Amino acid sequence: MFQSAEKITLSIVSHGQAALVRELLNDLAALSQRNFEVIITVNLPEDESLYQGFVFPLHIIRNASPKGFGENHNAAFEYASTAWFAVVNPDIRIQSLDFVVLLDPFKSKSVAAVAPVVLSAEGAVEDSARRFPTFFRFARRVVFRQRKSDYDIQSAPYQVDWVAGMFIAFRREAFQQVGGFDSRRFYMYLEGADICRRMGKNNWHVVSAMRFLTGL
């Protein structure tokens, strides 16, 4: 496994959601491992006092005007200097997470991105790991409201087409090679599908790992 000294940057974008982000930061503060730093992008004005009092490194980027998902995380990536970079939704809850175990699939040099399995607040598996969109898949999800997961959860890390941007850890080299998220073509949705497709074209793999997180 990776040594605990291997650090990861967690990029969180807040759209006036400081109270929600504070809960996530409290989860992180309760972890026994502190091999991470946090970058919060304040996309809309909010009460930043809620971000004070934490012992782990925490940096704030303030936007003069709102930006989209990809542009915000790309800017945070440029600020970060760690080998691993994760995009994290503010409504994710982390009751327990071993970052060393989470990053273990990166021992394979072909792995570009790793995402844990995400559970709903009720404990159901969210369909965060998906096959690439097609017209028929889109119709099934949107028109017929069929949201069944495209993949069965496996005990060992397994390769998938793409993962939604709830929580994705990237290898810095791979993220940089494909130019990060395409903020010109995508503002808020399908950035995950696009970046994973481009990584695949560069012979990188995307992996889902059975480390459970909870989304509200």
Descriptive notes:
With 216 residues, the chain is of the alpha/beta class. It has one domain (8-215): Spore Coat Polysaccharide Biosynthesis Protein SpsA, Chain A (Alpha-Beta Complex), CATH 3.90.550.10. The chain has six helices and eleven strands. The chain is globular, with a radius of gyration of 16 Å. Keywords: Glycosyltransferase, Transferase. This is Glycosyltransferase, GT2 family.
Topology:
Blueprint: E1 8-15, H1 18-29, E2 36-44, E3 58-62, H2 69-79, E4 84-88, E5 92-93, H3 99-102, E6 111-119, E7 129-130, H4 135-142, E8 158-160, E9 162-163, E10 167-171, H5 172-177, H6 191-201, E11 205-215
Parallel strand pairs: 1-2, 1-4, 2-3, 6-11
Antiparallel strand pairs: 4-10, 5-11, 6-10, 7-9, 8-11
